[in-house]
Design brief:
- The complex is a heterodimer.
- Chain A is of the alpha/beta class.
- Helix content of chain A is 40%, strand content 15%.
- Chain A contains eleven helices and eight strands.
- Chain A has helices at 6-12, 31-40, 61-70, 86-98, 128-140, 170-183, 196-208, 227-236, 244-252, 256-272, 291-297; strands at residues 17-22, 46-49, 75-80, 103-107, 158-163, 187-192, 216-221, 277-282.
- In chain A, helix 7 links the parallel strand 6 and strand 7.
- Chain B has helices at 9-15, 30-33, 39-55, 73-77, 80-83, 95-104, 148-151, 178-188; strands at 2-6, 21-27, 61-67, 88-91, 109-112, 114-124, 127-132, 168-169, 172-176.
- Chain B folds into two domains: 2-118, Rossmann fold (3-Layer(aba) Sandwich), CATH 3.40.50; 135-206, no CATH class.
- In chain B, strand 6 (114-124) and strand 7 (127-132) form a beta hairpin.
- By secondary structure, chain B is α/β, with parallel strands linked by helices.
- The longest helix of chain B has 17 residues, at 39-55.
- In chain B, 28% of the residues lie in helices and 23% in strands.
- The chains are: A alpha/beta, B alpha/beta.
- The A-B interface holds A 81-82, 86, 108-111, 113-114, 122, 124-130, 133-134, 145, 162-164, 166-169, 172, 175-176, 178-179, 182-183, 191, 238-239 and B 153-172, 177, 180, 183-184, 192, 195-196, 198-202, 204.
- The complex binds iron/sulfur cluster (2 copies).
- One iron/sulfur cluster (SF4) is lined by residues 132-135, 138-140, 147, 149-150 of chain B.
- Chain A: InterPro entries: FAD-linked_oxidoreductase-like, Mehydrof_redctse-like.
- Chain A: One of its GO terms (cellular component) is cytosol.
- Chain A: Its cofactor is FAD.
- Chain A: One of its GO terms (molecular function) is methylenetetrahydrofolate reductase (NADH) activity.
Chain lengths: 307, 223
């Protein structure tokens, strides 16, 4: 189904999409978000707004999205299942749509254990696949989650989900991706890729099953600032694989930050040639200002225009 | 069975700080099996409380009793004579036992000596693990006999999530990923295709949804 999403139009017309991520602040000012939105506006097609990422309380994803829209950039609102039951999810998403948000990314969300409210009660009323399914049904069959008809103005989001080729069991990852597509996901953003070999194997399995023809896959990349950051992701973040040679390369580099950017650009150039990948998703965690350079030097600038 | 753990003794002592004489009631049910509220633990708790109070120069008299089960009114009746002259009752049962005693002897101060934690079983001597979340609509036939509601940290019905790695859950390297276990089991059973079916949202109205649940068996009701 066609939505009003610019990201969807771009992807459907065969363009290689570029999305980035903006993490909202731990305070009540939109100043920083707006600054980043202006900076990224011409370099990316849409930006994800994380939803209390790593379970840390931050300015709301939907409120941030409105600021981003206001700056002339298209937001992708992230919705986690961790914090809301099905009443709150539907209410918030109706609200988001009414405010002009057209892209939705459905996630289960990081467990609250590692955030700044570890004693919170989590919700997990529904899971991410159920959320994808219910949102698509809302759009196509005009039904609330309960099955009650939506009389008018159903939200018509372009629906996305995430895939992590680096989590286990590996053999089941592609099957689970397919399950998300089956449920109604139309675009997929992957976890940050550092282990290119594993990602290639993942994409091979994706192509074998023809999944790349049914969904747009955007490969996730992250520029690393230091070998310590690489080491941290390697050892302390579940569901990540960072090969030793990346850690080593950063360790040996004279200017690790520059090296991190170089690695990221190389990765994007490599990813662009992997059949079935339809875009990149740049997650420059708290380093949004390097995104324009990365996009430009990866040969992805200027961004195509669509109606 | 129900797994409970005794509260720190100073917390129990604080709840009965102004009492001269207390009745400690153990339970011969689940809490005996998980070694936290049976006859032995009741005696130990009573003497610990007495010692503590003696050190404070504030004498405490204790009476002990262990009920067959505190979650059945008939076994609570037996306390009738014992509660008469005590200032408080300390229940070592699960939360049900505490409530049953409070309900039966409504003019008595009744306090919990335990934190009632979960429904589980022992996996090694001295180790108990949660296995069921009492959801009221069991789906173990769809998940290879492993409960995702309680054993998956996010209660995902269509797992495993992106945090599953090396067989462990994202919350801790000491916690098995329930979905890895489910995957392994279903694979061994040749039923992996079952995991590809999209599981619908759960009907939590059968679980803890804000109102107390009730089970009725008319065939065994009297009168
Ligand atoms: S599915 Fe429900 S009833 Fe069955 S073990 Fe899990 S929580 Fe208990
Ligand atoms: S890692 Fe496994 S057990 Fe932990 S939340 Fe994810 S699916 Fe559930």
């Amino acid at each position: 189904m066609k939505t009003e999403s610019k990201l969807q139009k771009l992807l459907d017309s065969g363009h290689f999409a570029v999305t980035a991520e903006i993490g909202p602040p731990k305070h009540a000012s939109a100043h920083g978000i707006r600054h980043h939105a202006h900076m990224l506006k011409d370099y990316v097609d849409a930006t994800n707004i994380t939803d209390c990422q790593t379970a840390i309380v931050r300015l709301s994803s939907i409120a941030s999205a409105v600021h981003i829209l206001d700056c002339g950039l298209e937001p992708i609102v992230q919705m986690t299942c961790r914090d809301r039951n099905r009443i709150a999810i539907q209410s918030d998403l109706l609200g988001a749509y009414s405010l002009g948000v057209r892209n939705l990314l459905c996630l289960s969300g990081d467990h609250q254990k590692f955030g700044n409210e570890p004693s919170a009660k989590n919700v997990y009323d529904i899971d991410s696949i159920q959320l994808i399914y219910l949102m698509r049904r809302m759009r196509e069959e005009k039904l609330f989650f309960s099955g009650e008809p939506i009389k008018e103005h159903e939200p018509r989001f372009f629906i996305g989900a995430v895939a992590n080729p680096f989590a286990d069991p590996f053999e089941f990852r592609v099957a689970r991706l397919e399950k998300k597509v089956e449920a109604g996901a139309e675009f997929i953003q992957t976890q940050c890729i550092f282990d290119m070999e594993r990602f290639e194997r993942f994409m091979e399995m994706v192509r074998e099953r023809g999944i790349h023809e049914r969904v747009h896959i955007l490969a996730g990349v992250t520029p690393l600032k230091s070998w310590r950051a690489a080491k941290y992701l390697q050892t302390s973040v579940s569901g990540m694989i960072v090969p030793d040679d990346i850690v080593e390369r950063l360790k040996k580099a004279e200017d690790p930050k520059r090296e991190g950017i170089e690695i990221c650009i190389e990765q994007i150039k490599h990813i662009r040639n992997i059949p079935g990948v339809h875009g990149v998703h740049i997650m420059a965690i708290a380093w949004e200002e390097v995104v324009p350079e990365i996009v430009e030097r990866s040969g992805l600038f200027p961004r195509p225009k669509v109606e | 069975m129900i797994i409970a753990q005794q509260k720190p003794i100073k917390d129990i002592a604080a709840m009965i700080a102004d009492c001269k004489k207390v009745l400690l009631v153990g339970c011969a049910g689940c809490v005996t099996v998980c070694l936290s509220g049976g006859e032995k633990e009741t005696e130990v708790l009573a003497s610990s409380l007495r010692i503590m109070r003696r050190l404070q120069g504030n004498h405490l008299e204790t009476v002990t009793y262990t009920a067959t089960r505190q979650c059945d009114p008939e076994y609570i009746e037996a306390l009738e004579n014992l509660v008469k002259d005590v200032d408080a009752v300390v229940s070592l049962a699960c939360g049900v036992g505490v409530q049953y005693i409070a309900e039966r002897f409504h003019d008595k101060w009744v306090v919990p000596a335990q934190n009632t934690m979960f429904v589980g079983g022992s996996t090694a001597h001295g180790v108990w693990e949660e296995r069921c979340g009492l959801c009221g609509d069991c789906i173990l036939h769809r998940t290879g006999g492993i409960c995702p509601i309680i054993r998956c940290s996010k209660s995902i019905l269509n797992g495993p999530c992106g945090g599953s790695q090396y067989g462990k859950c994202e919350i801790s390297k000491d916690v098995d990923c329930a979905w890895q276990l489910i995957y392994d089991r279903m694979k061994a059973l040749g039923k992996l295709d079952k995991l590809l079916e999209i599981q619908p949202p759960k009907d939590w109205s059968k679980s803890r949804d804000g109102g107390p649940r009730k089970a009725i068996r008319e065939d065994v009701m009297i009168g």
